Amino acid sequence: MKTASVQKRKGYLVIGGCGLAAAAVYLGLAFRLPFGEMDQPGAAIFPVVVGLILMFASLTTLWEGWRIDRNERVDLPAGTDLRRLLSLIGLLLGYFLALSVLGQIISSMLFCALLMRSLSDLGWTRIAAYSLVISISLYALFVVILKVPMPRGIWTF
User: Fold this and answer.
1) Does one domain contain both 69 and 36?
2) Domain span holding position 114
3) For a designed S-S bond to 58, which of 20, 110, 112, 134 qualifies (C-beta 3.0 to 4.6 A apart)?
4) What is the mean pLDDT of each run of 10 residues along the chain (157 residues)?
């Protein structure tokens, strides 16, 4: 496996800083929501708690990053492995964007099919069959059994 090496300390500091910035924005938006009363909490309670947890985790990451030796390095994928990793990230982003438009079943089928195609040498027939089984199984588990509302997209069933 081909790899590239980066300074571990720098990675911790960048991730901690990005998390801290995201937590600040998230908390800023959360504080605009109503807090409600003690007997009937408002919509802001859960987002504020999540924002505070994210802020704490980010500060912990920054603190740990400052303590790491500057010479300590970590290997990152390069070459073909990097392309596979970036394709996975792109597929996940596409899946989350497609969910609201195409709905859970179609988005899951497309995601599974493209992921299997990029990670394996299976033929399209088997990929289509596996993707259909996986997406319908996910629908049955989350929507039918667990009663979790999933995006229906532009087509409703």
Assistant:
1) yes
2) 80-145
3) 20
4) 78 96 96 86 87 97 94 86 91 94 92 94 95 94 87 71
